[in-house]
Design brief:
This protein has one domain: Rossmann fold, CATH 3.40.50. It is 26% helix and 33% strand. It is built from 8 helices and 14 strands. The strands form 4 sheets. Strands 5-4-3-9-10-14-11 form a 7-stranded mixed sheet. Strands 6-8-7 form a 3-stranded mixed sheet. A hairpin with a 2-residue loop joins strand 1 and strand 2. The longest helix is centred in the N-terminal third of the chain and has 13 residues. The chain is globular and about 65 Å long.
Amino acid sequence: MKYAEFDFKGKSEKLYYNTDEKSINNVLYEVFHEQCYKKGLDWIENIKNPVVLDVGAYIGDTALYFSQHEGIKLHCLEPCKNNLDCLVYNVNNIPDVKVYSNGLGSCNRITKLDAGDNVGSGGESIYNTKNKSEEIKLMRIDFFMKQAGIKHIDLIKIDVEGAEYEVFGSEGFSKVNKNIDAIIGETHLTPALPVIAEKMLTDYGYKFEWLPFNNLHYGWHGNIGKWHKEFNVNIPTLFFAHR
């Protein structure tokens, strides 16, 4: 297990990880330099002892970021064993945090998670299970909340490599969404388009906005003989939704 040291708001921090240096540096840049989850932190700023559900907690980077709020009650879900080991280590000094080894899905089931060729990068997905698959447990969000004794959630942070559509489109979410005040997270191109997440959440009465982080680059290259032209766009995938 390796670790990365960095400064954040005048304080020296350390995060343990099990991936390549480039991947972890990208994570640190997005979370602590760009502060892509600041909208969520601002949302809970004036809430005493806010309950935050970190779905796809990875190695605890976002847990560490949100722990700036004193009195926060964190629930971190991470089903990937490689990431889970680092997560447990990295949140050890956060006062009120619980770690769970399951993910969320449309139903309670055992499925496979694929890390691809870069284990520990945070890109583990249930939608591509050809390489280095491991079995993981998924739970409906309503069942999970009942089991964990959570009646109300001030903020959900979610980054689950496409499974967000399964969570938001589930019967479980339809039953408990009124007890969830705000959601911040990332959408993906598999198995749906990012706008589907917007449709799902606005249908449940959330006010939805895309955040100004263009972290998905998409394009088309036209080549006919000597003629060549590129068409490139930046697509926002980070969003914030609230009641």
